[in-house]
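Support case: user asked for a sample of complex input and structure output to validate their parser. Sending the pair below.
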Amino acid sequence: MIKKDNDICQIKCIHLDKVKLAKEAMPADELIRKLAELYRTMGDPTRLKIIQALQEQELCVCDLSAVVEVSESAVSHQLRLLRAQKLVKFRREGKVVYYSLDDQHIAILFEQGLEHIKE
Amino acid sequence: MIKKDNDICQIKCIHLDKVKLAKEAMPADELIRKLAELYRTMGDPTRLKIIQALQEQELCVCDLSAVVEVSESAVSHQLRLLRAQKLVKFRREGKVVYYSLDDQHIAILFEQGLEHIKE
DNA sequence: TGAACATATGAACAGTTGTTCATATGTCAC
DNA sequence: GTGACATATGAACAACTGTTCATATGTTCA
């Protein structure tokens, strides 16, 4: 799996110049990996519903459970992933934890996705 | 797994009014599912590299294989998924098939993702 | 303190995903 | 036609994902 940059020379390909350009413009593996993780996190219906539900207002875990129609445990697990990707933030008020979208990029990502679907 | 809308009444939740609003604003399951599929398709490092490589110029399968550093077969499989989600389009020129990004939404999605990562 | 509640977490299991290998299709040049 | 080449596809398998169930944490109020 591990290859070096000069592997180009050993691999069959038609347009060496184009390949070279594309390789130079390629972001670091680490960045690509993080980006993929972000999209993958948005790539699940349950999590997408959570994100949609939080577009207008903050909600607590049991509200989200009711909106999305999965168990509170399942919602909590998903919220953990969303938190890890900084897609949502939360505040505690007594026993209740309120979740909301972390920043505006998420809403834009969501909108752009919808645009693409609808075309 | 299958639940009806009026399940709200049976599920414990704190803010019935908010839940009702969120449920009304929730897009149809079918739309959510398609959207999740789109993001999931972007949620893999190999496919993301392919998308990045195609930002500047069209490339053929063996070029992509060299840029992304996976086998041509693997690239071909991934291109099939990208095609299914209308993320890329292609044209045939003799034996060679050239791939390019299907529309501008993809580039925007990619950019917004990067923005979020960098924050 | 202890019971009740809201949420979080760990283990486990079925279902899905991405790659590899082998093989098929389609195109060109002879 | 045949052979060479570029790409596509099918089966199979390991690795990963999302849910469930059981249990733990943390907070409030009596």
